[in-house]
Amino acid sequence: MKKVILSIEGMTCSACSNGLEKYLNKQEGIKEATVNLVMNNASIEYDEKRLNLNDLDRFVKEAGFKSLGTDTFEFEQKQSSKEKYKLIVTTILSIIILYISMSHMVGLPTIPYLNMMNYPLNYAIVLLVLTSIVLILGAHVLRNGIKNLLHKTPNMDTLVTIGAFASFLYSIYGTIMIIKGQKSYVESLYYESSAIVLFFIQIGKYIENKNKNKTKEALKSLVTITPKNAVVIRQGAEWKVTIDEIKKGDIVMCKPGEKVAVDGTVIDGVSHIDESFITGESIPVKKEIGNKVIAGSINYEGTIMYKAEKIGKESTVSEIVKLVVEATNTKAPIAKIADKISGYFVPAIILIAVASFIIWYVISKELAFAINIFVSILVIACPCSLGLATPLAIVIGSGLCSKKGILVKSSEVLENAHKIKTAVFDKTGTLTKGNLSVSKIYNYSDEEDNEIIRQVASIEKNSEHPIGKAIVSYANDMNTKLEKTTDFRAISGAGVYSKIGDNEYFIGNKKLMLDNYIKISNEADEINLAEKGNSILFVSKNSKLIALIGVKDTIRENTKDTIQKLKNKNIEVVMLTGDNEKTAKYIAEEIGIDNVIANVKPKEKAKKIKELKEKGLVLMCGDGINDSVSLISADIGVSISNGTDVAIDSAEVVLMNDNLSKINDLIYISNKTIRNIKQNLFWAFFYNVCMIPIAMGILSGFGITLNPMIAALAMTLSSLTVVLNALRLKRLNNNK
Known about the structure:
Distance between the termini: 58 Å
Strand content: 15-25%
Strand order of the largest sheet: 14-26-25-24-15-22-23
CATH architecture of the domain at 408-432 and 556-666: 3-Layer(aba) Sandwich
CATH superfamily of the domain at 408-432 and 556-666: HAD superfamily/HAD-like
CATH topology of the domain at 408-432 and 556-666: Rossmann fold
Shape: elongated
Helix content: 40-55%
Radius of gyration: 33 Å
């Protein structure tokens, strides 16, 4: 068996990907095919003895799509400007068509020589030409509607296609009758219905396609995490090479401030390395001989030599890319409400129209009357208001979210946020700010705390270590004037030494104190700081311990209140972090989270998300590269605005002001939006359902038949009701 990933052109919705997937899996020689709508590709496992790539390309073509060959995962920079210009032209033409058709009905001045009563032929021909252009520009929607019907998976596109074609063809018939001199047919033209319905659908398609490339952007960002170049030791000399030139077994040098180029094992040197993008742990990890290093992590201090072990597709970063692709592949598409309804509505309307045509032709023996009945049913069922029902409420709901600082990228978020059963949070950078700060000072000297900080910050300003930077930042916040230092020396893996005037200072970990014979007799304070999740900085002056400084990550504002509100909604709250269990549990206890899963890597995070999804919909909130797979694996991925680009691109929701309480606002708005959509769908069908019996000719025995003006009025009222109801969403109060 052989496996290949083909790039596919022509997929626009879940019905497309589902149809193609079903068709491929029916073919002999294909063991399994999985179609990924987000990545626009198909992963196919096949018997290479029976099939080749040409056969696979042929199968894709037979299903109505185009194979672009093996997917090279080249990422597009921007959505094609061609689609944007097509939408602009469609918008302009639709407005013109609507004005020509409706201006006389609302008392607006008509365009000269296009008055429907005085110049019916001009009126009909101009609308025919303009509508034809709109149909050509929206041909992809119409093609998709036909394909879905052929694949027995009718959706919104199918409904639009039938309605648009029925209106358009009947209008052409009316135009022909006008040419023959029967001017009364000018009131039986439905060109505007075809154009406007197609226009609304194309707006929705454009927005969806614009957001669909976010995952690809996330993958591109992941690939660029690793440096382009590195220094390797060959034949005793240093050689600067590109990352692609590094081979397994090469000895690679990494200096302070540089990124690790490939995964490997340290063979010389000691340093602290920031691996937070993988592990989620905010405090840099000490690396010495025998320890593993990960490509993309940052070396803070000390030069290290490491042996290259995992390169290219074997690296940890490449593994995350693979996991992201797999996550998008296995994520079940959420059917749109309108698509679900149209799955029943389309066949029912077609059946009613065909049955009515046959019955009336048999009864009346008049083909023209039977055709009129057939087309009238399809026209009155034309889903103009249905096309508005969901998108309009979603747009308004998204606008409400934006006003609250919640960027929603997908309509599925608003459809599902109110149904979540589990809310999962990363710790570092999400529940906490991700920045180290001074939390506690134990002062054993005769000097003030501020003076201790001033001395330590004066020395640490020369250091690149994150803890040192936290001390300097703390001093700057107090507007502390720093002193001049001399003889500064970084002690790899331990701390720093320096002098201020004649005073000698050692600042670092406990080992640094013991190595320099500095007595430590304050173990209770040390234990207290450690139990509260602090990294501890020991400060000695002239061989005497003068202070312990606790440095730790701080919890975000409103976090505790956010967690409590989620629990009040009977939503299970879980902390999922790569940080150590002791620190994670301390933070969790402080903010009220009972369920803690710690020491997990990106792949394990995604696995935990999948396990939690068995209980119901899962929302995942994270900020780092290590969260990207989990964000995509969850039903709803939420990132904060100062998170990594990868996390933001992978998430479907971005909290623009980093306020976690906005998650509760999102749930509230989702609940109200879905309720509004259901009301809209009712009104979208109410008038149509009332008018369809008349269109069927049921009341013709009483002299009541469908008048084109009544049909137009019904569709207008239906759309107007939907619009007004959707606008009610704007009056939503804040979530209490």
